[in-house]
Amino acid sequence: MSGVPARWSSATLSEIAKWGSGGTPQARNPRFYGGQIPWAVIGDLNDGLVSRTQAAITAEGLSSSSAKMVPQGAVLVAMYGSIGKLGIAGLPMATNQAIAFAIPDPRILPRFLFYYLMSQRDALNAAGKGATQRNISQTVLKSWPIQFPDSTTEQQKIVEILDDHLSRIDTAVAEIGQADQRRLSLRSAVIISELRRAGGEPTQLAEIARDIRNGIFVSRPKAEPNGVAILRIGAVRPLSLDLTDLRYSERSETDLAREDALLSPGDLLFTRYNGNPRYVGACAVVPQSVPSLTYPDKLIRVRPHRSMAASEFVALACSVGPGRQQIQSRVKTTSGQAGVSGADLKRVVIALPGIEKQLDAVSAIEERLRSIGMLASSLDSAKLRARQLRRSLLGAAFTGRLTRAESTN
């Protein structure tokens, strides 16, 4: 950082805080879970005070693993997947190994460090390594530079300004989010009404699918476009597939084709695992124009009989209403990781009309959703402006511009 006041000091994060990370008790041992010790996973981090966790462990689970107690007030940082997602421990708790914790020394206010790490989130993400899931290590965090006012009074002033301004931005973002939820509710209602209009007989996915299988494990996917492209775990979003930021498998196309591990247009992809149960079972269709493409083992491919079922119709039926509810009811969480299996998907029942009625329903839904899509674009623009304002505010805070007058007196 340049241009900071002269009375600010420079250090690395290891020089201003004690760092550590947690662990996971053996998943299949019932004696280790359901106790009185809150146990945080990445899904519990909320960019604010963490006052409760999804899971708890026992004292035996704590002592039998590398999990450690973290004191109230410690700053929590996600190292896997959602790099830089933050929290402040609102009570003593343990964490899993995906979360680093920092206990600042007396020179640094915990909330100042919390906001500083928030300002560095994009840069920390860029420093992440990995293909299907980007990660950083404690080594990266400990060596990360920080500049800070020598005076904790000035640090507190920065925290107070950020608390005030960011809370206003958060309020605006919450209102945008509420509008977006209303949009999604309207979208779901449109889809459900057209699916009901189409009718059909109750049919299990097992009857619709020619094949249901998990993806492949790739130990060292590469960023360079050399080999078969492999989707990221987060590429499957509800009713859309993100084909940007692909990674590449060292395995040959011939080898993957022999294992039937290549995707084809019209294949359905479901999210098999996610830290947040809400995102498990998200479904998207592989589009007509795709490169040679495979998929990781945290996704499930369903290849339908195209003469029997239109992929787009099945995806819609599995993404809203009873189909989605059935998938969610089968989600199980183990060691902080929520998941659903191919066997679970086979038992999902949807109403399946004839193929012509399916195609008519898909066309009608697409037509009715166009105006809702325009609203989505407007809300996305508002979210972008809020992110830019937040980034600008944090940038000013940690280059001394928010408290320049105090620094020069």
CATH architecture of the largest domain: Alpha-Beta Complex
> In percent, how helical is the residue content?
25-40%
Q: Radius of gyration over alpha carbons?
A: 24 Å
Tell me the fraction of residues in β-strands, as a range. Answer: 15-25%
Number of H- or I-type helical stretches: 13
Average of the residue pLDDT scores: 92
Q: CATH-wise, what's the superfamily of the largest domain?
A: DNA methylase specificity domains
Can you describe what's shown?
With 409 residues, the protein is an alpha+beta fold. The chain folds into 3 domains: 8-145, Alpha-Beta Complex (Adenine-n6-DNA-methyltransferase TaqI, Chain A, domain 2); 149-191 and 362-409; 201-352, Adenine-n6-DNA-methyltransferase TaqI, Chain A, domain 2 (Alpha-Beta Complex), CATH 3.90.220.20. 39% of the residues lie in helices and 23% in strands. The protein has helices spanning 13-16, 59-63, 110-119, 121-127, 138-142, 152-198, 205-208, 253-258, 311-319, 321-329, 342-346, 355-397, 404-408; strands at 8-12, 17-21, 33-40, 48-50, 55-57, 69-70, 75-78, 86-89, 93-95, 99-104, 145-149, 201-204, 209-214, 228-230, 236-237, 240-241, 247-249, 268-271, 273-274, 283-285, 293-294, 299-304, 332-334, 337-339, 349-352. The strands form 8 sheets. It has a 5-stranded mixed β-sheet with strand order 2-10-7-8-4. Strands 5-3-9-6 form a 4-stranded mixed β-sheet. Strands 13-22-18-20 form a 4-stranded antiparallel β-sheet. It is globular, with a radius of gyration of 24 Å. The two termini are 22 Å apart.
